[in-house]
What does this fold into?
Amino acid sequence: MSDETPLSSPRVRAPRGSLVVAIDGPAASGKSSTAQWVAQRLGFRHVDSGALYRAATAVALARAGEHFDEDAVLRFVGEISLRPVQNSFAPTWKGEEMEELIRAPEVTRLVSRVAQMRGVREWVDAHVREAADGCDVVVDGRDIGTVVFPDADLKVFLIADPWERARRRLTQRHGRAPTDAEIADETERLVQRDAKDATQTVQAKDAILIDTTYLTQAEQVERIVSLAGIFRGGGPADAQAPET
Ligand code: CDP
It folds into this structure.
């Protein structure tokens, strides 16, 4: 937790006029699902920046195989758009939804390489800011509170023990309890990805750290909604119940 106390008094709103909740953290820390749920509770829109890095990687892979450079990726990303879907945004490629494509293991293996490309980072940042323009948003990623929205109204940094992150990710992926051997393999992959993403995975000085290792997802959502209560001049009581 920071030495500053951003929520002890109402903050001056950023010039853009709308509210931003930034949720950052390492791989599989539950950022996206938490952000989606928090957005629903607050009546905000959710923007998943990682989905854009994954979309850029998926299109580069499909168009050029594994041997793409930054110039190639930047040519291909012009084929990607962000489509509003309910209270969120989904990347589309030539008008087609990409959810299955961007979660493929090959994309997960290569995405950190693409995320190091400066031009790709600028492309993602521009898309995220554009999606957030004119509406209240919950944005998740790794550098949202430091680079994309350094003036965000609320910044949260989620962490969890790697073994627990791996267990959750596999349970979500396969819809069953994973074995210890499966968790050990996935933990190894997550730790490697964390190392590759370390440069951009930075906790902002004014971010609130939440360790979710021993929290249920509902509990972590509740904490963030409570922190955001100041936006409404009230508390979690005025937030709507989730639909899920
Ligand atoms: O697997 P997980 O949900 O944690 O990752 P993600 O949010 O889907 O992000 C996929 C990848 O995109 C990360 O491993 C990073 O390499 C990159 N990323 C980034 O560099 N900066 C962000 N703000 C978000 C994602």
